[in-house]
Amino acid sequence: MTVRFTGSDRAETERLRGEIAEVLTRARARTAGLTDCLDEADLVAQHSRLMSPLVWDLAHIGNQEELWLVRDVGSRQPVRGDIDHLYDAFRHPRADRPALPLLDPAEARGYVASVRDKVWDVLSDSPLQGSPLVTDGFAFGMIAQHEQQHDETMLATHQLRTGDAVLTAPPAPSAAVPISGEVVVPAGEFEMGTSTDPWALDNERPAHPVPVSAFAIDVAPVTNAQYQEFIADGGYRRRELWSERGWAHRTESGLEAPEFWQLDSDNRWWRRVFGTMTPVRPNQPVVHVCWFEAEAYATWAGKRLPTEAEWEKAARFDPATGRSRRYPWGDEAPDESRANLGQRHLEPADVGAYPAGASALGVHQLIGDVWEWTSSGFHDYPGFAAFPYREYSEVFFGGDYRILRGGSFGADPVAVRSTFRNWDHPIRRQIFAGFRLARDLRADER
Ligand SMILES: [Fe+2]
Asked: Which class of enzymes does this protein belong to (predicted)?
């Protein structure tokens, strides 16, 4: 069968090529920014046992790009067929990666550049339709998201690294409007997940109806000031606020405040932010707390974490049309007026900073600032099909993970949407995660 392109098909393919080139270029500029600022010793060092050496992330980014775009989509010869095993995340846990015979920084930079050169070739040859892997440029979008996700991981490594500050960015905005309290999300079914978002990953699919009882959700994530009240009220010492597992973890790990917080002799909290000590900003969402801390705070506040479905309904449901939106504010891509994304700032913005980013129901800052812990584990949606490989999501279903939603200041717009699902262990604190609270309605509110 001969496929006949109409003029508008050709224009659409060219538009898509341009978009792919833009997101790949943006990701690479960020990767360079996160690695060019450090010397060789800092790039090969392991700054935390939780993280890979940055030089591993760098070459792994290139290796995934080579496997999917150069070899699979492009059917080209390998650039480096001999190093796949070193950069296979499933073969080597992060703690073991420094001992591997990795490419050194200069070799890694040369490698990712050679791979990218071939990818430009593959992109100009690809029809961007036909097989599911290339339709709508999926594989290219997947690789751009992969690089940005590693960039966020590398940003977390920068936060863990001790030593002089090397990253700079303007401070995140203050509140534009005062916001507080909660909104009621009405009972009823909504459409969760997506079947149409071209670059959505397998775990976000397919769209399916989910019934949700009426509930209340906070208009903003929990702030540093609110979290300090929990600390001051003995939150970390009161056993009754913690679940059994949470208390065991709190005790064993000696948790007393969010990671990177320090109390000075005048009883003021400071926070180390990418190598700079800074007073804790009261109206910023709290960040670097684990799921167990979020759970204890919620108990203290007489509320609970939202389920994943509740979070997504609060973010997407438009009561006027009954439709689920792509983003809280509508279907248009994020921009600076709507969300704190893309490492434009090195911190969350104060609550109330993005009134233009509020959802139809009036919930603010669901996208950007901090990943938000939900009460839900990671499970497949009804009708799930692994694509393009089981290791993307399927092997993690049912594990000891909690779902995080919404993206952080360190997440790029290409890798964040209201259907996007992140997951991590409930003890993890190095990720840019905070939380917001929800609660059931009382009988007199229903
Ligand atoms: Fe990866």
From this structure: oxidoreductase
Sequence-separated (6 or more) residues with CB below 8 Å from residue 258: 227, 271, 286, 287, 288, 289, 293, 429
Q: Are 309 and 374 spatial neighbours (Cβ–Cβ below 8 Å)?
A: no
Beta bridge partners of 433: 371
How many residues make up the chain in this entry?
Answer: 446
Ligand 1 mean position, distance from CA 432 (Å):
18
Contact 113, 61 (CB under 8 A): no
Structure tokens at 334: 């994020």
Q: Answer left, alpha or beta for residue 303, where phi above 0 means left and psi between -120 and 50 means alpha.
A: beta
**How many whole angstroms from 266 Cα to the centroid of ligand 1?**
43
Sequence ranges of the domains in the chain? 10-160, 169-446
Residues 6+ apart with CB under 8 A from 269: 224, 228, 257, 261, 262, 263, 279, 280
Nearest to 146 by CA among 138, 156, 157: 138
- Binding residues are 60, 94-97, 146, 150, 424, 428
Token pair 């940005």 is found at: 148
What separation in Å is there between the alpha carbon of 124 and the centre of ligand 1? 25
388 preceded by a cis bond (ω within 30 of 0): yes
Beta bridge partners of 423: 403
Q: Which CATH number fits domain 10-160: 3.30.1150, 3.30.450, 3.90.930, 1.20.120?
A: 1.20.120
pTM beyond 0.70: yes
Distance 146 CA to ligand 1 centre (A): 6
CATH number assigned to the domain covering 169-446: 3.90.1580.10
Where is the binding site for Fe cation, in residues?
Answer: 60, 146, 150
Helix (H, G, I), strand (E, B) or coil at 239: helix
Checking DSSP bridges between strand 261-263 and strand 402-405, what pairing results, if any?
unpaired
Distance 60 CA to ligand 1 centre (A): 7
Binding region for gamma-L-glutamyl-L-cysteine: 94-97, 424, 428
pLDDT in tens, 296-347: 999 999 999 999 999 999 999 999 999 999 999 999 999 999 999 999 999 9
Give residue 87 CA to ligand 1 midpoint distance, Å. 9
pLDDT digits (tens, 9 = 90+) for 26-80: 999 999 999 999 999 999 999 999 999 999 999 999 999 999 999 999 999 999 9
